[in-house]
Amino acid sequence: MPASTVTITPIVKKTQASAAAAVANSGPKTRTWAAAQVVGANVPARKKEINLKALALQQKKEAQKKSQQKAQQARDAAICERARAMREAQGDDDDDDNTAGQDLEGLDGQRDSPVPPLDKEEQDDQDLDGPLDEDPDALLFHGSDDEHRQAERHGNDAPGIVAGHNDNDNMEVDLPSNQIQVSSPPSTPSKKALNCLHIPSRCLLADEVRMNCCATATQQPFPSDKHGYNMEILQDLAKDYKGEDDMVEVFARVLASVDTQQELVQFLGYARSGFFTNCMAKAREWVATCFGLPGKMNSTEVKELVGWLLKDGHYKYGEVDIHNKTYNTKLPFGCEGIAHILRLEVFATEGGANIEIFREIVNVRKIAPTTIALMITFIEHFLNEYVEGVYRHVEFSDTARPCYCFHLSSFNHIANKAPKWANNFATSLYKLILTQSNKEFLLDAEADDLTEVDIEGLEAAAVAAPVDNRGPSPLPSSSPHCSSPLHS
């Protein structure tokens, strides 16, 4: 056995040396194969390293997500805790003041307020705690005594009524741009107008949320849960508000009072309805002019024309000819009324709550399907008022929701099968409205009219210049066109 062992060892070493020499003397293919074998030996280690890095990255993302969730939960918990403390404090005050005040129903009857009457404890708190302006919640939604006295001097009943707009019996509420009138308010499920004393038009929270609510009117015109939808807008505003006021504290006070929530949500509904009312007026003007309703036609002719327009949505096409009863099937949703309503109500107005809708549309640089469906709903609503051949006014309200959903589904049905057409249509409609509104400058994504400016030279000079905190240097006094007051 020892002899055989001694014999085998040199043979093995000789074999390995021969293999190495063969590889060294072999061609390119053999050397490549050998190198691949060496690299292949390191593949498992490389895969393991990659998997470890991917796992670490995933764990890092999960940790960041959990930290964000914890921060959000802590913020929500702080808001709820503050609201709970306020409710408990209010409950303690109610227990101490149970004996004050008796005839509250008579007082509410004299005020003729459609808002649900306060219970006995809440009214006692107002009687015993002094003027409204001493209570931050009351001041937030009712206004101060000085505001009431100033409103009475201008001939108004309460703060929140715009002075100078009381020439007739109709009183315009809140900002003039909304055109909301108490005597003829937009239709709501409750069919009741807010009492003037409870409209928080001077409240910063209400003003900010009113604009946000109008901005989302074209995105979600008919929310199924109005209260929850508006409360979400309130919460988002409280979190994202960048002003000096603490909106989180204001929102906590809103959460502490169910009555305040109802009043504020109802007020936001009226601001939203103001936009719908104005759009409906523009739709009536366009339909009456474009289709000649009623014109010189009798009731039978009007009924026949409206029936043809409504059949299979003929009015939604472009190039509609009411005399020859023709339309262009290659222009679905080519109704000119869509651009007409948006141009007059959103793009041609100055200021007001509609400026937020304008900004939303300009940011995406196209008209959203929800906005298109809403404009078509306005047009069809007016056509339905002539469906019997004579005009019968119908309030535009939540009953139009099925019609809106139908038109939105109709547009999405085409858009899903022809996405390129849908995108081009939304963009071209946006450009058409801007052109009609004399706002073509918004079509330029990047203005570059000063072509002779050496931008790189300007930047290089600014970087090379020493930092000077003394402010800009004065203009040279030798200029023949301008002079600086520093040299006078």
From TrEMBL:
Region (Disordered) location: 58-191, 465-488
Domain DUF6532, first and last residues per copy: 214-413
Biased composition (Low complexity): 476-488
Biased composition (Polar residues): 176-185
InterPro entries: DUF6532
Biased composition regions of type Acidic residues, renumbered to the chain: 121-137
Pfam family, one: DUF6532
Biased composition (Basic and acidic residues): 78-90, 143-156
Protein name: DUF6532 domain-containing protein
Organism: Rhodocollybia butyracea
